[in-house]
Amino acid sequence: MSRRHPALPPLWLISDARNDAGLERAIARLPRGSGLIFRHYHLPPAERRARFAALARRARARGMVVVLAGTMAQARAWGADGAYGPPRQLARGPAGLRLVTAHALAELARAARARGSAALLSPAFPTRSHPGAPVLGPTRWRAMAARACLPVLALGGMNPRRARALRCAGWAAIDGLS
């Protein structure tokens, strides 16, 4: 893991079981300097680490920032640029890029206390990941992001058109970029 924070990309691809087959193509299409959040919770540990290494090589060849869903210590051990997860998971550990998940104002505050580099506030819009779940919508998402003490990235049903509608600093997607 880099000892200094890489610049925070405005665009993030999140890996998942359902977009795994197209990740190499998606990485090749993303603008240079984008980010990859590697989750792949569905894989056993050894396979997960091998898949991370393969995708990280491709992403770095495109000048991308690579973040691992896990603890800061695990991200450092795997050679990631940072870690992704809930505030309680990222509150401890070595310095580094922290992308903290949030779904409410209280979680945005916890993300800041966890030394978050940015929060991923979701779900902004309806998403296949959580069908039928309540969403924030543009007005509520913008109001919550405006009250945050750290940069806020949009997640949940995101695509370029919705990112423009939110006027957000950055966004992440699984399906919207795959």
Describe the structure.
The chain is of the alpha/beta class. It has a single domain (11-177), classed as Alpha-Beta Barrel (TIM Barrel). Helices cover 35% and strands 19% of the residues. The protein has seven helices and eight strands; from the N terminus they run E-H-E-H-E-H-E-H-E-H-E-H-E-H-E. The chain has helices at 23-29, 45-61, 72-78, 87-90, 105-113, 137-147, 160-166; strands at 11-14, 35-38, 65-69, 82-85, 97-102, 118-121, 152-154, 171-173. Strands 7-6-5-4-3-2-1-8 form an eight-stranded parallel β-sheet. Strand 2, helix 2 and strand 3 form a beta-alpha-beta unit. The protein starts with 10 loop residues before the first strand and ends in a 5-residue tail after the last strand.
Annotation keywords:
TIM Barrel, 178 residues, globular, alpha/beta, 8-stranded parallel beta sheet
How much is the radius of gyration in Å? 15 Å
Annotated CATH architecture: Alpha-Beta Barrel
Helix content: 25-40%
CATH domain fold name: TIM Barrel
